[in-house]
Write a structure and sequence with these properties.
By secondary structure, this protein is of the alpha/beta class. The protein has a seven-stranded mixed sheet. It contains four helices and seven strands. The relative contact order is 0.23. A hairpin with a 5-residue loop joins strand 6 and strand 7. It is 27% helix and 26% strand.
């Protein structure tokens, strides 16, 4: 696990952008944290890092459940906040998206229960203050362990 402290929205976006530049096809990122903790801001940065056109608004798919964006790798951005439970995701067929050659970022991924892919990167956002967040990166599986190693082998301040 690696922990980073973000001191502002801008730093959270830059951290996402930095990770987005390194993501590879098939990456599954599980985003967890309270409302307003920075998950969607982080996704905005990932979208930039994936080369998604800056004129495309990156918004939380709270009511649509899924937004798709085309960059160097297609990005599927899920928000499962409104789901009632694990069965809802299964009924909607989301698991078909989770095992492809795209990048999946899933807000409220804990609502997938045991259906969450075993190969993934968990990113947990915790409030420290009005402007500061602790962001924990927890890899699961060899691909995401390698990604995290690649990300944090360099000095963080040179990355974002």
């Amino acid at each position: 696990m690696v922990s980073v402290t973000s001191h502002s929205v801008e730093e959270t976006i830059l951290l996402g952008e930095w990770l987005g530049r390194l993501l590879e096809p098939g990456s599954f990122i599980a985003l967890t944290g309270e409302l307003g903790a920075g998950k969607t801001q982080f996704v905005r940065g990932v979208a930039t890092g994936l080369g998604i056109d800056s004129s495309v608004p990156i918004t939380s798919p709270t009511f649509t459940l899924l937004n798709e964006y085309q960059g160097r790798i297609r990005l599927y951005h899920f928000d499962l906040y409104r789901l009632g439970g694990v069965d809802d995701a299964a009924e909607l067929g989301f698991d078909e998206y989770f095992h492809g050659d795209e990048v999946c970022l899933v807000e409220w991924a804990e609502r997938l229960g045991s259906d969450i892919p075993s190969e993934r990167l968990d990113i947990i956002f915790d409030y420290l203050s009005d402007t500061e967040r602790r962001i924990d990166f927890i890899p699961h599986g060899s691909n995401h362990e390698a990604l995290l190693k690649k990300c944090f082998d360099r000095r963080l301040d040179s990355c974002y």
